[in-house]
């Protein structure tokens, strides 16, 4: 597994020069991208406590590190998905410093009138946390965040509501882009090696034959392709180079879909446009594989 280096530069982490009033923090790429999109044109500052070098799976370790320095400024809220991803414990840490900090859990609507997210589960019955990979979930996450931000910043209601409408429209456009792309191929079917990408496959109606990475070896590639009649393997992790080469030599393709587990980088920071870029890149990569 790729090791993600943790850089905790004092000047980077939550300095008074970087952050001001109306501060909302987050720690993962998806919620950072969502928060930035939904607060455009407002006085709300959404910032991530990490740069682009810290993956989701490293968050708890990173926050527990001695080099992690909580902000001195008042933090109004923390956007997380802790209901389904316990490793996302930023709120717990910030709450120790400020009793008034509010948690905005983008994975769970405390308002009974709001729609729940759709969840996929792993073999152990745990919720797969990459919920934003489904377009329907993405819209619901945005609605949850917006509602709570309006409660915290009522003077920003008009802009926040307008941003939610704009965001929802952009999601629908991306959905249309994907659906059109996959309608242009003869068969939108894959051999799926990771449950983490099920949200994406399900929402774009891509049929998947399930296999584990351990099942796919140099010796078994051709057999699996013959048994399933499929040639496109997908995952969120890389296979060994020899296995990928074997897939390609048998006329197939291997596609790694981006879950944003590892943030997209822009000048050392998380990319604000990561949600849109990851969706488009995933759609384009799959379409290219289908057309091969």
Question: What does it look like?
Answer:
- The chain is α/β, with parallel strands linked by helices.
- It has a domain at 179-291: Nitrogenase molybdenum iron protein domain (Rossmann fold, 3-Layer(aba) Sandwich).
- 37% of the residues lie in helices and 13% in strands.
- It has helices spanning 29-38, 59-64, 90-95, 135-152, 157-183, 198-203, 221-228, 241-249, 274-291, and strands spanning 23-26, 45-48, 75-80, 102-105, 189-192, 207-210, 232-235, 253-256, 265-266, 269-270.
- Helix 4 (135-152) packs antiparallel against helix 5 (157-183) and helix 5 (157-183) runs parallel beside helix 9 (274-291).
- One of its GO terms (molecular function) is metal ion binding.
Task: Draw up the topology in text.
Elements: E1 23-26, H1 29-38, E2 45-48, H2 59-64, E3 75-80, H3 90-95, E4 102-105, H4 135-152, H5 157-183, E5 189-192, H6 198-203, E6 207-210, H7 221-228, E7 232-235, H8 241-249, E8 253-256, E9 265-266, E10 269-270, H9 274-291
Parallel strand pairs: 1-2, 1-3, 3-4, 5-6, 5-7, 7-8
Antiparallel strand pairs: 9-10
Organism: Fusobacterium necrophorum subsp. funduliforme
Signal peptide: 1-20
GO molecular function: metal ion binding
